[in-house]
Amino acid sequence: QVQLVESGGGVVQPGRSLRVSCAASGFTFSSYGMHWVRQAPGRGLDWVSFISYDGKLTKYADSVKGRFTVSRDNSKNTLYLQMNSLRADDTSLYYCAKENTPVAGTGSDFWGQGTLVTVSS
Amino acid sequence: EIVLTQSPATLSLSPGERVTLSCRASQSVGSSLVWYQQKNGQAPRLLIYNSSNRATGIPARFSGSGSGTDFTLTIDSLEPEDFAVYYCQHRSGWPSSFGPGTKVDIK
User: Fold this and answer.
1) For a tag on chain A, would you pick the N or C end, based on fewer CB atoms within 10 A?
2) Among residues 50-79 of chain A, which lie with CB inside 8 Å of chain B?
3) How confident is the model at residue A102, as a pLDDT?
């Protein structure tokens, strides 16, 4: 069965960096685009980033552009989000999510349970 | 950037009632609109994609409609497990975005 397991969250000071990971299993990881979506405590969903199946296309929300970098290692079935210059408003539960179909644009059918990133001094 | 608005913010209903949730886009997204359900402490669950296509395993009581800027998610007869928050998301170009959500709670 499809599994997405995020890791790497924690408490980090403003201005510092953190990398979170998402280990995928149960499907052909190299065939699907992947997303990062975050959710601040008690708030709604906030789309963060997308990477195509082959890593050649990456997209970002305006709020993280220039600070966050998404990447993937298809040989390790792992998705990454490098977060630099972190701010208090980046505090959220970070989910990785799989595209529903190999053709992007049909939503995300599997989600991890999230990894919590807290930005605080 | 496309902004999605959802209405109402909260609905208080009883099991068995019919529910209609609205999602409006600030500009046309064609049919590239997705609906999710999220329960407390859980990851979102994909319900509907491309405005009206039910995702795998989603019961027939859930249906979606609309195109352009106005979209609707309908639940024909609320089951106890349907009380949750519902989000729409557009997938018409980048950046993608979510609506603020509609909470459906028990009256």
Assistant:
1) N
2) 50, 59-62
3) 86
